[in-house]
From TrEMBL:
Pfam families: 4HBT_2. The keyword Hydrolase applies. SUPFAM superfamilies: Thioesterase/thiol ester dehydrase-isomerase (SSF54637). Keywords: Hydrolase. This is 4-hydroxybenzoyl-CoA thioesterase. It comes from Vibrio rumoiensis 1S-45. InterPro entries: 4-hydroxybenzoyl-CoA_TE (IPR050563), HotDog_dom_sf (IPR029069), YbgC/YbaW (IPR006684). It comes from the Bacteria. Belongs to the 4-hydroxybenzoyl-CoA thioesterase family.
Length: 142
């Protein structure tokens, strides 16, 4: 595991198009919020999706879970936190969505991704050096 957990947070305001007819964010859109926080987190170590591809790996999601605690209205400002909790054999990122004003926890979840060699399309059973070097460099500088 990392010495200091790699994490990020983003502030988002769901738009009207994110909501169902009752004005509540559609359940599938929570993954977009997770994705944005994960994108910012991976940018911190210089391993965003373009850099993943350039390193010869794709990282499909193989498992995910969301616990909907309280509904999110389409115009509510939310804070989405992402934290890397596993990285040696797969990427596991935990998420929490909070009401940005009150701090109330609204949602939590996780995603798991594995490295797949782009050329062979074979799943890697350990995270590739191209990724672990980025984590180690970040830890060294953190």
């Amino acid at each position: 595991m990392t010495k200091q957990s790699l994490s990020s947070e983003v502030i988002m305001i769901p738009s009207f198009q994110d909501a169902d007819p009752m004005g509540v964010v559609y359940h599938g859109n929570y993954f977009r919020f997770f994705e944005e926080a994960r994108r910012v987190m991976l940018d911190k170590i210089g391993y965003n999706y373009r850099e993943m591809q350039a390193s010869g790996y794709m990282w499909p999601i193989i498992d995910t879970r969301v616990k909907y605690i309280k509904p999110i209205a389409f115009d509510l400002t939310v804070r989405v936190e992402a934290k890397l909790t596993e990285w040696e054999n797969r990427l596991k990122v935990d998420y929490v969505i909070y009401d940005a004003q009150t701090g109330a926890r609204l949602t939590k979840g996780y995603t798991m991704q594995v490295a797949v060699d782009i050329k062979t399309e074979e799943m890697c059973f350990v995270s590739p050096k191209a990724f672990t070097d980025k984590i180690e460099a970040w830890n060294h500088n953190a």
